[in-house]
Amino acid sequence: MKKQTKTQQWIALTAMGLGVFMGLLDVTVVNVALPTMVRGFKTTFTDLQWVLNAYTLIYAVTLMIMSKLGDMYGRKKIFLGSLILFVVASAINGMAPNLLILDIGRGVQAIGGAGMTSLSMALVASNFDGKDRGLALGILGSIIGASAASGPLIGGYLVEHFGWPSIFYVNVPFGIIAVILTLIYVRETPSYGKNHKIDLAGMITSAIGLFAVIYDLIVKESHPHWSWLDARVSGLLVGGVLVMIVFVFIEAKVGDPMIDIKMFKRPHFLGTIIIAFALGAGIYAYNAFLTALMQNYIGYSAVQTGVRQLTISGWSLVLGPVAGILSSRFSKKWMIVGSMVIGGIGFFAMAYAISPTVSFVELWPGMVLMGITNGMVNPLLNTAGMEGALPQEMGMVSGLLNVFRQFGTTVGVVGLGLIQDAQYETHLNNHLHLIQMPAKVVNGIKDALVNAGPFSGHTIAFSTRMQQMPFASTLQKIVIAAYDNGMAAVAISSGVLVLLGALGAAILMRNRIASQDIELKQDK
Question: Where is the Major facilitator superfamily (MFS) profile domain (predicted)?
Fold first, then answer.
């Protein structure tokens, strides 16, 4: 095969970067469009929840499957097919006449997004070599980091100026450009498993197991007061875990497994997926809570929130290429560990800054430190994850890193949400007696605030009806303090998660590891 010129390589990276940016952006971009969609479809936020969940759920479930199909039939082919599917689904979503069509379209769109995201890293690794590979993976990592944090800004601007369908329509022209560039400039990889049988049992059990576990977390997030022992929660969780155990057993026995279980025996690889999980559970999950703080409590619009969050996402664009260059000269392991520690300090700074009068002035130092972590770790993680991977494993390594990053985000949103709810409710229980009203009134207000949750409690406390009550000022101070307690606990918990990720990386990751080392070990 004719070797690509430098220009062709960087144009190929542009195509893959466009794909992964669109795929990851659509995980978060819908959030800011929900109020407009509620009015457009004349429905409720509860009914619209599946516009979010359908994408998140199907995206996470199909990441590994799309990675394996890419390894078997050619990563460029599956990437290109995923890109086309994503563009078509985006157009359908923009035209959706009702919620059913939109929910189905989001699920189809998620399959395309999973294919683009899971294969982009492996395609970059096979289209570049030497020092250019580290730089290209660094740039791709910066795109991953920026896309995950850019949803509020891009979504807010589009919805404010062009309406909610624009968040889907915008994918069409950029997607067409990416399709053309991919066809012309992206080099195909060998079909490493073209003579293998499709591991249908592995694909089905992995999909069912992941679906059950992630759907269970979504159910728990929607019903925070349901006990983990409640059959509606524990049934799905236990069932999903059991199916995943069956999946591991199948992969260990089948001749052509979807995932080579031996990959998980490598300490270095385990270290990288721990970092991917910690990044999702800490930084990406926290973004949802930070957005709610800035919009619901401080009072910034979606666009104003997005602009201020550039102090987080903007670092990805600056540090991604820098991290890629430095990764060829210094230890990626210790650069990742150091960057995660910086993020932990940032979260503790955020917790310290939370107060009833908090504004962006107090928040930005912590946000900058979080942004530095995001901007450094993502590109370094991509490069470190590929180290030691055999050529035929690169697609699955890419897919697994994305699975653990997305799974971490889902677990983080639920776990941090439960911590916030607990702190919020505890403060209300301890302080609502201060409004000095009959117990029946106090209990009614408490029930309303608890059922609404921390995100919506502010709306109730500052509603026109509540403003007319003689105890309005006292109630508002209590609600804000309850929310602040919850947010501080969320920030501290995120900091601990990030630091635990750093500890795992320090223990398990290796400074240098080559694919030849893996081949020698596997041959023994």
Answer: 12-513
- Distances in Å between the Cα of 377 and the Cα atoms of 70, 151, 310, 313, 326 are 26, 20, 17, 13, 12
Q: How far apart are CA 115 and CA 80, in angstroms?
A: 9
Full residue range of the structural domain in which residue 51 is found: 1-198
Indicate the residue among 162, 182, 198 that finishes a domain. 198
Spatial separation of the C-alpha atoms in residues 264 and 366, rounded to whole Å: 34
Same domain, yes or no: 189 and 304: no
Alpha-carbon distance 71 to 263, whole Å?
16
* pLDDT tens digits for range 311-340: 888 887 788 777 777 777 788 889 999 999
Token pair listed for 43: 């429905």
5, two tokens: 């010129």
Strand, helix or coil for residue 168: helix
Number of domains making up the chain: 2
End position of a domain, from candidates 175, 198, 221? 198
What φ, ψ does residue 164 adopt, rounded to 5°? -60, -35
pLDDT of amino acid 46? 66
Give the tens place of pLDDT for each residue, 85-118: 999 999 999 999 888 899 999 999 999 988 988 8
For the whole model, what pTM was predicted?
0.84
The token duo for 194 is: 């073209």
Instruction: Answer yes or no: do 309 and 163 share one domain.
Output: no
Which CATH number do you get for residue 191?
Answer: 1.20.1250.20
Residue with tokens 């930070």: 290
Structure tokens at 356: 């009833």
What is the per-residue pLDDT across 238-272, written as a single tens digit (0 to 9) for each? Answer: 999 999 999 999 988 888 888 888 888 889 989 99
Q: Are residues 458 and 347 in the same domain?
A: yes
Domain check: are 148 and 26 in the same one? yes
